[in-house]
């Protein structure tokens, strides 16, 4: 099978990978749930390529993201639910419906403000139509939290869930109370470690992360941004360890944990004055 610029070739390749017996064993054992994390990861890779202004990489990452759509559509087709063409039809219908000023003669040209109001009105209509298609038991209770989108990154969604609950007074009054909750959750993790309960450890770790997001919200920090900053800091300090070892003709594999830990502290010492200077400048503003 040869490469092609035609989407139909990609669909054929995906079908071949998912064909029993002759397909790829790994691809055949996947389902929606196991592929979903890769879908999220590829969306982040697209965003990263855009941030780096790397258009060659963006082309590759968009292809990887497109594969995710084709993958999900193929699995749905195997269940006789829908196919890739149905996905395309659904989004084209939605775009045409949401842009009557472009595609429908009856509305003609409208001002930007009118475009936005029409967009919101049509979105509300679509939301009501989707709700009407759901079983009665799914729409019987309208939760305060229903408006928090499920597809957001977990840290961001945790923040939004907490923020929404706080609008009716379900919230901590003091960041120190949240800090006490964090200590409580850490104690529960320690107890789960003693019991060696893997499922409980995963649950308690999630509770600790949720409490940390709550603390971030109370001190005015965005948890996603804060974690990105910490990731970058970890990369810088780890790179310092690599460079310091390389300068001595050493490798990471040949270094002890104690040596790497000492170099980590060196990296912290190098960064500390610059970090304190930046914080001081921030306070002066």
Indicate how many domains the architecture comprises.
4
Low-confidence stretches: none
- Count helical runs: 13
Compute the number of strand runs: 0
Mean pLDDT equals: 88
* Residues in β-strands, percent: under 5%
Tell me the series of helices and strands, N- to C-terminal: HHHHHHHHHHHHH
CATH architecture of the largest domain: Orthogonal Bundle
Largest sheet: none
Enzyme class: hydrolase
GO biological process, one term: response to stress
InterPro entries: MazG-like_dom, NTP-PPase_MazG-like_C, NTP-PPase_MazG-like_N, NTP_PyrPHydrolase_MazG
Catalytic activity: ATP + H2O = AMP + diphosphate + H(+)
Which key phrases capture this entry?
single chain, 285 residues, Helix Hairpins, 4 domains, 74% helix
Task: Give the topology, please.
Layout: H1 7-17, H2 25-28, H3 32-51, H4 55-78, H5 84-98, H6 100-103, H7 112-133, H8 136-139, H9 154-166, H10 175-195, H11 198-218, H12 223-247, H13 257-284
Helix pairs in contact: 1-4, 3-4, 9-11, 10-11, 12-13
Enzyme class: hydrolase
GO biological process, one term: response to stress
Region (Disordered): 127-147
